[in-house]
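Re-run requested by the PI after the first attempt was lost when the workstation crashed. Everything re-entered from the original request form. Ligand of interest: adenosine-5'-diphosphate.
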Amino acid sequence: VKSASLRFRLTLWYAAIFTAVAAGLAALLVFNLRHYLENSIGDAQARRAHQIAETLVARVDATGEGYLAQQIDALYAPEKSDRFIRITRSDGRVAYLSGAPADQSFNPAAVPAAPPTVGQEFNRPPAVAGQAPLLVAAVRTGNPTGPNYLIEVGTSAAPVDALFRHVLWLLGLSLPGVIALAAAGGYVLIGRPLNLVDRIAAKAEEISQHNLDERLPVSRTGDELERLSLSLNHMIGRLDDAFQNSKRFVADASHELRTPLTILRGELEELAQDRALSAPQRERLGSLLEEVERLTKIVERLFALSRLDAGEAQAERVKFDLAELAIATAAQLTLLAEDRSIALTWEAPVPVWVEGDRARLKQVVVNLLDNAIKYTPDGGSVRLEVLAAEGRAVLAVGDTGIGISADALPHVFDRFFRADKARSRRPDGAGLGLAIVKSICHAHLGEVDAVSVAGKGSRFRVRLPLASP
Ligand code: ADP
């Protein structure tokens, strides 16, 4: 949605700027064209007016106005060439007026008198309704002795106006199309890099601690996007290194701790056999042994987790009946439940086949049942179910125990997480049991989830791919 809107915004900006530039250029072009055409026509009229002034009107005193009119008709044939010519004496009398043009586009008698031209040799007299607009050049002869003459030569401005309108229409009609085309082109062009951004984002979304060896797509375009994905990839590489380092550290540390712990335990056990010890000394040794055992358990679990992380989850791959494995495991734990007068029951009527590492999946059942018993008060009940549903093998462990608060529930599968430390009845374990369950499930392409109501009980559910028997 983000990239779509970015794409939309960029295209909009692009289209807006393009429209402004194109419209500006078109206006410049059209008005310059009109100006140029008017100028060249006006100049031609002015040239003719000067010609008439210098060759004919200058000698009118000698030749007379009749000859003047005759000459103009003969030389310029204003009616035939749709031209307007008028010669007015300074006393206001019209000495010559051309007749109606062949195309009848204007009435010469109705053309308003030319206003005094300022700086410009020609102008447009105010339009008369129903007549073609004219471009009229006016030249005044300077005669120190006799009367002055105003020579006006004009022609229709209609072709210029028509051309102007035509070009305006043409541009008005084609501009929207051109703009739409440009916007569409922009939309497509912007789409390509934005698609790449989308793909980078999607890939980045996919990358987690489990696939840090994967990298984002890199476009070899040498642009900012290539640099972005390259630097993100370098960052992922550094994260990967750091992650591997910490994993290796945990693996090495837990491995190194196992031997001294085993020796320590052995020595303590041997010491406890010593008959010379007094009862209080023996008791202290006993609690020391308990602590060492707890430590050993934590180290074993850490070690198991780091091996799971390293991808050794399915060291063994066999097909077996999960129902049978679960029942056997539950039977082994019955004593533990009986100690606390907890009713441990199971229901697994039919074989449920799965494929994977038997020992590890047994660990899943043990950890879940162990927790259920551990977090259920004396006299409660724990129930185990194994069945096949929706193409998955489902193993569920429910209890009537203390439950898990809604705040804690999303974190119970995190490493070293323990909800409500004070209330946990037995202090053993370190919050690694469920993390191991989750790792094993993931390694078997399965998943585990939990629902719980604080004070009422919890239900953990493992789902694994079914195997054909
Ligand atoms: P721990 O070694 O503390 O049992 P786990 O990873 O097995 O570690 O469990 C993490 C935490 O989840 C426990 O500390 C406990 O608070 C909670 N929890 C796990 N199973 C249950 C359960 N069946 N009922 C209530 N709380 C549970």
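Saved to the shared folder this time. The CA atoms of residues 117 and 268 lie 125 Å apart.
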